[in-house]
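So, can you check this one?
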Amino acid sequence: MSTEGLLEELSDMLGPRLVRDMPLGPMTTYGVGGAAAGFIEVQDGDDLTELRAALAGKVISVFVIGRGSNLLVSDDGFDGLALRLGAGFNFVQLPGSRGNERQRVEEGEHPLVVRAGGATPLPVLARQVADGGWSGLAWSVGVPGSIGGAVRMNAGGHGSDMASCLYRYSWVDLFSGRGGTDDVAHLNYGYRSSSIGATELVVEAQLMVTPGEVEVEKEAVSSIVRWRRAHQPGGSNAGSVFTNPEGDSAGRLIEEAGLKGYRVGSAEVSGKHANFIQADKGGRAGDVRALMAHVQSVVLERCGVSLNPEVRLLGFAGGETGGVKREEVGEQ
């Protein structure tokens, strides 16, 4: 059955919650790109249960959008169903009584955990944890994505990552009855990678913290924010475009190749940090993709290094999220 027919069936089952031809570009930090054939925001566990029941037995491409901070959507859009977790998955629950928690740590009963929903923005998490006087997650203020996406890709920065602080995570499979809560060891974490299956959706994470001092933790968060403003560009970008090769920096290689400030149409390699690509307002996703390909080609030719994209590609012919059915669950 065609995508159109499948979306008609899903619309009959899910009602007006399923929106047709929803622009995705505004949901991304690039701000460019086309529309999804279908879109639904899942507000809570009941909504998620209904969606999974509706998807059972169907063969349709599905992509999960989180904060859109690591995603480039094709100008032609996405011929499938885009999904976003809503308010019911956006929460932070700090540990309980600090006196009791500190005693538990002293007695060796670890870990203390912060619980956060899959839709929770990491900068919000970092600030709430610091305001509560807990230590260990200040680094996450520099990651603009969601908890779900961070767990999936082992997001990190400023000397830490999810592999270092994740204790457990809860997940569901969108196309089956499978799901549960697993330890971090289940993820087989690597650099910006995990073993989370393509149809598995992270709905909650438990993150380890230790007791700290409020002012110290708030200053740790503020110092990271100041560093990012000083060293990384603002505007419409998706952060680091390419993963760092082992023992080297993608930004250094791109600069060495003479590509700082290089432009293709409405996209430009940032003059402030060469591993960032800026998109002009009203620009084209195709320009960003073409510039990515050009950077890869020139760095390979001049430096002998093959750069791997960190940015997820949606709706591009032959892209990493190109025409796979059912198994296609992405950025979160």
